[in-house]
Amino acid sequence: MSLIEITEVKKRFGDNEVLKGINIDVEPGEVIAIIGKSGSGKSTLLRCINGLETIDDGSISVAGAQLLPDEIHLKALRLKVGMIFQQFNLFPHLTAGRNVMLSQMVVKKTPRGEAEAMAKKMLERVGLGHKFDAYPDELSGGQQQRVAIARALAMQPIALLCDEITSALDPELVNEVLAVVKELASEGMTLLMVTHEMRFARDVCSRVVFMHQGRVHEIGPPGEVFAEPRTPELKQFLGML
Amino acid sequence: MHYTFDFGWLLEYWPVLLKGIGITVELTLVGGVLGVSLGVACAWARALGPGWLRPIVTAYVEMIRNTPFLIQLFFIFFGLPALGIRMNELEAANLAMVINLGAYGCEIIRAGIQATPKGQFEAGASLGMSRIQTFWHVILIPALQRIWPALSSQIVIVMLGSAAVSQIAAEDLTFAANFIQSRTFRAFEAYFVTTLIYLALAVLLRQLLRGVGWTIFPRRGAASRAR
Amino acid sequence: MSDFTTWDILRNLLLAARWTVVLSVVSFVGGAIVGALLLFMRIGKGRAGPAFVKAYVEIFQGTPLLMQLFLAFFGLGLFGIDVPAWLAAGVALILWSAAFLTEIWRGCVEAIARGQWEASSSLGMGYVQQMRYVILPQALRIAVPPTVGFSVQVVKGTALTSIIGFVELSKAGTIVTNATFEPFKVYGIVALIYFCLCWPLSKSSQILERKLNVAHRNH
């Protein structure tokens, strides 16, 4: 059984069918890059896996937890998959440390001391142990995004969804975030990332999904997808036409 | 609660209510038009007026915004005659409403003007427009367009506040309600009906102001209608 | 021409102003409590709650405060109790303030970026937890300046309670005028006292707002 099973998922916004039957199975430890033009449905797919969008048809399950639109199932699912956003979405009224502690304490009811120790550990892991008491507006974009990663990791998810996590960053800050992601990948974390960083996708990912008009247009190991694209759409996307 | 509601008096007294509605509407129209005009003039004075005028306008705006309308009304109607300035109830009511809306209008319009990029004014000047022309076309109209919703709400607030003019015996809608309750001893019913009428007036006035907005600012109107 | 010195006038007015202050505080605090309850109904997940609060706000913002005072005064009287003016004044002003405060605060809650909801959802928080730990703490911060600003409206609103016979600053002004026949002086002083009560509130609201905007720019 795969870790994440996405089966025939369809999603419609009004008349606009954004996802037209998506099938992807993700094995534990896989790092998957989802690429495609804007509007191809890649972000929507990621948001569906986390229950931020409801799906109209099909099914999604993560380690046996089924995506169902009720609070209990959603919570169970979200405890298994963490999500990192393009805009970081740190809580601006809390310090970096408190950002990482909050959900542990209120969702998992972890005692304060334990949550604090975990927060310290996770901030260390993303290289920001010294920023425990800094507020988000005192951090650079790259640092904020790393705190967001630490915040998700503190919930000990079995997979992470990354939604264009470097797109809002200044170019010189992209690498510090990607380095953290690479580190996670090498430690065996299952990752699903929507990204525009093609080189990163080629170097780090186990598989690449090319989405086009709401469908999985091509899927395969990066060597294949990038070196020998089969469809004109992917060729065009990669700038080979 | 042993009380039987009785709205039978409506049959006899509806002309009184109608007259009251007429006065309230008249006060609102005059107060609205002149009040907004005064607000525009004051906003101009604060933005571009001569240096000596600005502190005076600021003092006026702050004084009005930080005292109750009722006291402004009493001061004008009862106090000003001491200075030889006499007027009847309706004139006093109108003056008080204009002065009141003028101050709030000034503040609202000023906020709209402050949001206008500085370059706009320079662009106007570079095209050879006079200060007044620039103010009118480049600063004021876009500012008004921006703050029209806020200004509309303020006009509705002034209309509702006009209920207080009954206290200087201006014969508005509230005055009519007071009159009816003193004759029929049906206080609750009289004020209940009057309150509903005010609610209807507020809804209508809001619609009217929206329409006015569409007419004076057609570009915005087209956009919001398309939505 | 009258036996009243300016000091007499001022003293009497200041004594009455105490009641303006008391009524303002009671109305504001009471309005805040009711307004908070309405806010939770408004932004809650039910269907009836939001509809009720919408209608409530529409009615209280769409009718004169003076009418609300009359209805409270005569409406409470229908229950056969002899309604003192202070009670009707307090009830009406609390309900009226609640309508405005709940609208102000709703705006603040809605101003919180959608990403905050999504991030807290993705961490597994439920609606109540999101509100309690993520949304409200932020909304509260931006709510302070407009809330302080609204307190000025409450102080000014209390003047209308003089019409149903509550003796506060405005009513005292009328009483003193009737005794001294010096309306210009008396209402002038009354206005100044209101100004002294309201202006510091207006000014601090402005200053708080400016501070908040500066803080925002640093983000």
Automatic annotation (TrEMBL), chain A:
One GO molecular-function entry: ATP binding
GO cellular component: plasma membrane
Membrane topology field: Peripheral membrane protein
Domain ABC transporter: 4-238
UniProt keyword annotation of Transport present: yes
Subcellular location: Cell membrane
PROSITE patterns in UniProt: ABC_TRANSPORTER_1, ABC_TRANSPORTER_2
Domain of life: Bacteria
Pfam family, one: ABC_tran
Alphabetically ordered keywords of this record: Amino-acid transport, ATP-binding, Cell membrane, Membrane, Nucleotide-binding, Transport
Family, per entry: Belongs to the ABC transporter superfamily.
Protein name: Amino acid ABC transporter ATP-binding protein
Species assigned in the record: Ancylobacter mangrovi
UniProtKB/TrEMBL annotation, chain B:
Boundaries of every ABC transmembrane type-1 domain copy: 21-209
Pfam families linked: BPD_transp_1
Topological type in the membrane: Multi-pass membrane protein
Keyword Transport carried by entry: yes
Transmembrane regions listed in the UniProt entry: 20-48, 69-87, 147-170, 190-209
GO molecular function, one term: transmembrane transporter activity
Gene Ontology CC annotations of this record: ATP-binding cassette (ABC) transporter complex
Protein name: Amino acid ABC transporter permease
Main location: membrane
NCBIfam families with a match to the protein in the record: HEQRo_perm_3TM
PANTHER family: ABC TRANSPORTER PERMEASE PROTEIN, MEMBRANE COMPONENT OF AMINO ACID ABC TRANSPORTER
Localization per record: Cell inner membrane; Cell membrane
InterPro entries cross-referenced by the UniProt entry: AA_ABC_transptr_permease_3TM (IPR010065), ArtM/GltK/GlnP/TcyL/YhdX-like (IPR043429), MetI-like (IPR000515), MetI-like_sf (IPR035906)
Family note: Belongs to the binding-protein-dependent transport system permease family. HisMQ subfamily.
Keywords linked to the UniProt accession: Cell membrane, Membrane, Transmembrane, Transmembrane helix, Transport
Organism phylogeny: Bacteria, Pseudomonadati, Pseudomonadota, Alphaproteobacteria, Hyphomicrobiales
Gene Ontology terms: biological process: amino acid transport
Automatic annotation (TrEMBL), chain C:
Membrane topology of this protein: Multi-pass membrane protein
Organism whose genome encodes this protein: Ancylobacter mangrovi
GO BP term (any one): amino acid transport
CDD domains membership: TM_PBP2
Compartment list: Cell inner membrane; Cell membrane
Transmembrane segments: 20-43, 55-79, 85-105
A GO CC term attached to the entry: ATP-binding cassette (ABC) transporter complex
Pfam families with a match to the protein in the record: BPD_transp_1
ABC transmembrane type-1 domain mapped to chain residues: 17-205
Record has Transmembrane as a keyword: yes
Name of protein: Amino acid ABC transporter permease
